[in-house]
């Protein structure tokens, strides 16, 4: 039915049968298509209904609801002409403001709630608080959200599942994980959304192991995970580089949601792309990307960053060109971090300059610290240390420790003068970031490269006197779904005896190839009174590789994940082990992936 001009009813209908006339208007309202028709219904209701009649109030609430979805300003005008709006009417406006994309309107949702409190009636009900808390979460309004929490407790809503779900999301969004967990732990009854919100909160805070432990509890409660649960699990697996569990989550998704849903769900697919890239399975990530029906900017960014961290610089740049030339997506700031990282990993100095200029001049993206850091590292790694220093001095923001470490590392690797390295180190030590252990470690390496062993000892003594500890190297390897953790010189593993036996075999095979250790980075990691060679052979990644050689089936790649950058000697040794034992080894460190196959590595000229 197309609603035309509504004729006024006979006067006797208004006075004698207001309910029946309201019912007639409600029928028109059910078939209302746009604001023009709604305004006609509203005008007629003002002329032909009794004020404060229950049916009239219901009609006005329906008019208010429709207008809140299509014209919020008109909804406010309707609301202002209602003498005694009930809680349902307040909730309609608060929800419309809270769900708006406008920051101003989200603030308005909180103001409406406060105005509601100032009136003697009505009181907020259990539907009010989820909308208010949603606005507080978006605005990071921790103080206002806590006030709402206190009020809902006063009103006796502490057991309401929907309100508690909103509280978990609110506290997590505002950076208060402990408060979110406290709400979750006290819930007498939990829904699927409750578990999803808490698991996602742990993932948001980088508590990946806790998130997966909670997921196990979730399954023990006989809940069936949905797409949101699996997406959080996949993100946790990406953070932990837990490939086996990530593949299980992917298989679950395909088995329970169907291939078409898994293929068309952009957010889930983006999580899968991120997980497979971070877990060293670039081929699977590429297959998922090419099979996706829809992409967004995050999809493209994930692949560009994935290619970059795997040392596939040319593929990353080809992906970027497809993104902007064929798919016509506009790149954002994250896109260019990936592009510049790709140039960095493949020594593409001219390309790095080109894409940095493209970002600034063509796409009008203001460079952030990450972009400058990439370009500085590109120049410094290519030996253009003076140009890199000029760029640092021209940056509109203060360089961070990452940029300074990059310059120091380049000074060491490119045999720059010790004086220049000392000057850079001095600037860091005199800045706010002067307590960074990385500065001392890199300065020690500069001295070691110059064979100034007395100065190496002085740096070690300075660190000891100042209570500065080097971050310990830690490597993870997954065997049959179980993650094993190793530190340098670790002897705590149940298979320690067998691991060290494998290391001895490796050492003998390395000697037969003419391998000569690179001791330049041994001094700062030799925490034991052993030889420099023993220090190198007991690095955490070598222990993990030994476990992989011991337990993994033939043909299975060894995947290692290390918290620090792999040293030169370990990089060389890993390549030799790959060739000697005919095994594929994938090592992800703080900077990138090192993919060894038949002795060769996808990282170009690693140093």
TrEMBL record:
InterPro entries: DYW_dom (IPR032867), E2_motif (IPR046849), E_motif (IPR046848), PPR_At4g14850-like_plant (IPR046960), PPR_rpt (IPR002885), TPR-like_helical_dom_sf (IPR011990)
Keyword Repeat: yes
PPR repeat ranges per the UniProt record: 160-190, 191-225, 296-330
Superkingdom of the source species: Eukaryota
Residues of the DYW domain: 514-607
Keyword Zinc-finger in record: no
GO MF, any single term: zinc ion binding
GO biological process, one term: RNA modification
One Pfam family named in its UniProt record: E_motif
UniProt keyword annotations, A-Z: Repeat
Similarity-based family: Belongs to the PPR family. PCMP-H subfamily.
PANTHER family in the cross-refs: PENTATRICOPEPTIDE REPEAT-CONTAINING PROTEIN
Name used for this protein in its record: DYW domain-containing protein
Organism: Populus tomentosa
């Amino acid at each position: 039915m197309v609603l035309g001009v509504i004729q006024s009813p006979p006067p006797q209908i208004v006075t004698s049968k207001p309910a029946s006339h309201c019912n007639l208007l409600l029928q028109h309202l059910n078939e209302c298509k746009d604001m023009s028709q709604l305004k006609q219904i509203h005008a007629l209701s003002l002329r032909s209904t009794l004020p404060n009649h229950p049916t009239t109030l219901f009609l006005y609430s329906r008019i208010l609801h429709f207008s809140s979805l299509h014209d919020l300003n008109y909804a406010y005008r309707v609301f202002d002409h209602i003498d005694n709006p009930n809680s349902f009417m307040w909730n309609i406006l608060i929800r419309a403001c809270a769900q708006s994309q406008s920051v101003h309107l989200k603030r308005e949702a909180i103001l409406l709630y406060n105005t509601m409190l100032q009136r003697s009636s009505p009181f907020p009900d259990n539907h009010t608080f989820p909308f208010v808390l949603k606005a507080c979460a978006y605005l990071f309004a921790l103080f206002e959200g806590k006030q709402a929490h206190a009020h809902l407790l006063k009103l006796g809503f502490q057991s309401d599942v929907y309100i508690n779900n909103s509280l978990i999301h609110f506290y997590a969004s505002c950076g208060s994980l402990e408060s979110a967990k406290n709400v979750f732990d006290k819930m007498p009854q939990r829904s699927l959304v409750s578990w999803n919100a808490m698991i996602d909160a742990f993932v948001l805070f980088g508590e990946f192991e806790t998130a997966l432990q909670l997921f196990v509890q979730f399954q023990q409660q006989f809940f069936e995970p949905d797409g949101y649960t699996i997406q959080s699990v996949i993100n946790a697996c990406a953070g932990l580089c837990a490939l086996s569990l990530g593949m299980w989550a992917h298989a679950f998704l395909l088995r329970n949601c169907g291939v078409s849903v898994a293929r068309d769900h952009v957010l889930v697919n983006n999580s899968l792309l991120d997980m497979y890239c971070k877990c060293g399975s670039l081929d699977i990530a590429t297959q998922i990307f090419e099979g996706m029906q829809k992409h967004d900017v995050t999809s493209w960014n994930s692949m560009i960053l994935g290619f970059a961290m795997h040392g596939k610089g040319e593929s990353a740049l080809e992906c970027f060109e497809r993104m902007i030339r064929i798919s016509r997506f506009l790149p954002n700031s994250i896109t260019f971090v990936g592009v510049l990282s790709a140039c960095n990993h493949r020594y593409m100095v001219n390309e790095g300059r080109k894409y940095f200029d493209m970002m600034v001049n063509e796409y009008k993206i203001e460079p952030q610290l990450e972009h400058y850091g990439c370009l500085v590292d590109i120049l410094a790694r290519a030996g253009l240390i003076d140009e890199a220093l000029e760029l640092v001095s021209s940056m509109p923001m203060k360089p961070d420790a990452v940029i300074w470490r990059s310059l120091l590392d380049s000074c060491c690797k490119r045999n720059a003068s010790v004086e220049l390295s000392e000057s850079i180190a001095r600037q860091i030590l005199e800045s706010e970031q002067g307590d960074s252990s990385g500065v001392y470690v890199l300065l020690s390496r500069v001295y070691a490269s110059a064979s100034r062993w007395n100065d190496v000892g002085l740096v070690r003594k300075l660190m000891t006197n100042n209570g500065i500890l080097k971050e310990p190297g830690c490597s993870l390897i997954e065997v049959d779904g179980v993650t094993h953790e190793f530190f340098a010189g670790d002897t705590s593993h149940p298979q320690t005896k067998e691991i060290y036996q494998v290391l001895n075999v490796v050492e003998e095979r390395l000697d037969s190839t003419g391998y000569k250790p690179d001791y330049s980075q041994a001094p700062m990691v030799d925490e034991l009174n052993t030889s420099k060679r023993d220090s190198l052979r007991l690095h955490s990644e070598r222990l993990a590789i030994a476990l992989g050689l011991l337990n993994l089936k033939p043909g299975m790649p060894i995947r290692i994940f290390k918290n620090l950058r792999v040293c030169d000697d370990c990089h060389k040794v890993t390549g030799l082990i790959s060739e000697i034992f005919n095994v594929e080894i994938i090592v992800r460190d703080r900077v990138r992936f090192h993919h060894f196959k038949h002795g060769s590595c996808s990282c170009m000229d690693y140093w």
